[in-house]
Inverse folding.
């Protein structure tokens, strides 16, 4: 009897303890949710590169490490008078320095700047260096000569000053800088741009920009109410992907730790995660520091691509427990820190864009015979005749090529005649001229569309759980005909999307919202990259798509009031999921 009574009392006590713990856990969970809800009640949107991210309104944000096409960029607010005083002082400083021979020609040129976006200022070319000598491999002696030049632009508009500079670099930068400045737009207040381009602090570059121009930027943010929390975002386009992803690197590092060090680290999450159509590695770890404080590290990383500005190397981190000189206890519990992390990361999305509206009074279109050079922005859609080639040297893509207005005029890849040995080995010798390729407009008619005879890349259907609801909703609200999106990005809206790349076989195709936009397909001439003659080859690479008609299904005409691109559809039919003919 006594034993039964004791057992009953023990069970009752255990039930009370478990109930107490459950109640404490429930109260803690509610308190954590309330804390995160309070921190994120008011959010602000920040444009970083080509992406948007929502942060608590109190967040103090700083953009830095801005770089593009070899130029370092500094931006700040500055009154007009102070800007011009600084420009004058800089010019005087450059002129006062002797050149490499000790003369007074250090400043080689000064160019006034006045762009369509309202920027004014000056471009300086100075500080030329020359290194020359002889090198030998033991058998031959070669003479070498290297030249370097410093190029900088100081420009200003609407209270924003922007400095671009590259020191002791290849002289080709002299031509690049004016083109970059022409694409630069001051953006006081860091408003979210609507036209395609790349956001930096207080300004943005309008497209077109290419991956090899190396867009780079860093964002740092902290929360005054939680000073131990730090957030950092790093993006770099056109970089070679690492051989190892985040999870693989982490596992390799942890394997080298001592047993005591491993005991202080706990993985809370370690798995792939897709955000805004980009699949990366997510790693969340709990640390017990040597001073016994507990902190958390959150990390999401996309390895990036070399040839697509819309899929850059993307690294976003959040750390708690950061002190001035040593770690401090995290101001957020594990649940609260995870809740804040999920709230912020789910807001990351590709910035919706819309081509700028044209004014009622359209400027006159360029006439037949208009000339342009490689690197220039194409002034008129149509057929352009390449000035390079001839005498047995052909041009990849043909001597006549269709180029759309706004695209960058290409540098022609010239194909030399193949020797019999090269044909047998399947080798096609090629080269690019050192000078920019000249082009001449010969026909302004729309190019002929043909039905592709080869398979096209298909859109990737993403599971609903893999797509961020917050990001998708934000994009859908701003979606309209005319927006652009790129390969690998989650389709912002169901409808008909036109491929914007010259010579692509895709035409206009229907994609469903949330699916990942596919690569575009190009036909290669028979025998160019293969010794098998009489057959055609295709290649697929990232491209750009433009929404021309909203439609929930291929056979639907879309919602009332939607616009329709008549020029794009005239004279050709469409097939679901395929290209326009």
């Amino acid at each position: 009897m006594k034993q039964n009574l004791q057992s009953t009392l023990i069970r009752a006590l255990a039930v009370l303890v478990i109930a107490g713990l459950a109640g404490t856990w429930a109260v803690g969970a509610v308190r954590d949710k309330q804390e995160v809800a309070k921190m994120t009640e008011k959010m602000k949107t920040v444009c970083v590169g080509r992406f948007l991210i929502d942060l608590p309104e109190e967040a103090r944000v700083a953009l830095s490490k801005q770089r593009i096409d070899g130029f370092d960029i500094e931006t700040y607010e500055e009154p007009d008078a102070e800007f011009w005083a600084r420009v004058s002082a800089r010019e005087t400083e450059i002129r006062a320095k002797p050149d490499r021979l000790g003369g007074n020609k250090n400043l080689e040129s000064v160019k006034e700047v006045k762009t369509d976006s309202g920027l004014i200022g000056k471009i300086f070319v100075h500080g030329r260096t020359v290194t020359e000598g002889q090198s030998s491999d033991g058998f031959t002696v070669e003479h070498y000569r290297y030249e370097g030049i410093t190029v900088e632009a100081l420009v200003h508009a609407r209270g924003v000053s922007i400095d671009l500079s590259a020191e002791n670099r290849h002289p080709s930068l002299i031509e690049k800088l004016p083109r970059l400045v022409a694409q630069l737009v001051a953006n006081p207040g860091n408003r979210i741009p609507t036209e395609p381009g790349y956001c930096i602090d207080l300004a943005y570059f309008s497209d077109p920009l290419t991956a090899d121009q190396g867009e780079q930027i860093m964002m740092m943010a902290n929360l005054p109410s939680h000073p131990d929390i730090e957030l950092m975002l790093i993006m770099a386009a056109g970089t070679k992907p690492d051989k190892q992803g985040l999870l693989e690197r982490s596992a390799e590092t942890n394997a080298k730790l001592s047993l005591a060090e491993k005991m202080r680290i706990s993985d809370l999450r370690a798995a792939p995660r897709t955000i805004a159509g980009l699949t990366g590695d997510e790693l969340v770890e709990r640390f017990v520091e040597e001073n016994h404080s507990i902190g958390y590290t959150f990390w999401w990383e996309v390895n990036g691509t070399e040839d697509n500005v819309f899929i850059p190397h993307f690294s976003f981190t959040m750390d708690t427990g950061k002190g001035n000189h040593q770690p401090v206890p995290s101001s957020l519990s594990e649940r609260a820190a995870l809740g804040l992390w999920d709230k912020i990361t789910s807001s990351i999305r590709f910035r919706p864009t819309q081509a700028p509206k044209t004014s009622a009074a359209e400027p006159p279109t360029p006439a037949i015979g208009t000339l342009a050079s490689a690197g220039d922005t194409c002034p008129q859609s149509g057929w352009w005749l390449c000035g390079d080639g001839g005498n047995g040297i052909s041009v990849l893509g043909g001597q006549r090529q269709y180029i759309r207005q706004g695209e960058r005029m290409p540098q022609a890849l010239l194909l030399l005649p193949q020797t019999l040995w090269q044909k047998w080995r399947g080798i096609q010798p090629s080269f690019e001229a050192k000078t920019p390729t000249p082009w001449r407009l010969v026909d302004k008619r729309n190019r002929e569309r043909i039905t592709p005879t080869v398979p096209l890349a298909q859109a990737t259907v993403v599971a609903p759980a893999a797509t961020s609801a917050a990001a998708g909703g934000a994009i859908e609200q701003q979606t309209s005909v005319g927006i652009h999106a790129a390969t690998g990005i989650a389709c912002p809206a169901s409808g008909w999307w036109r491929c914007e790349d010259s010579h692509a076989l895709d035409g206009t195709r229907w994609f469903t919202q949330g699916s990942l936009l596919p690569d575009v397909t190009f036909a290669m001439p028979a025998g160019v990259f293969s010794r098998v003659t009489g057959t055609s080859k295709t290649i697929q690479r990232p491209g750009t798509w433009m929404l021309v008609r909203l439609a929930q299904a291929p056979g639907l005409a879309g919602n009332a009031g939607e616009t329709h691109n008549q020029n794009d559809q005239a004279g050709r039919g469409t097939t679901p999921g395929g290209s326009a003919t």
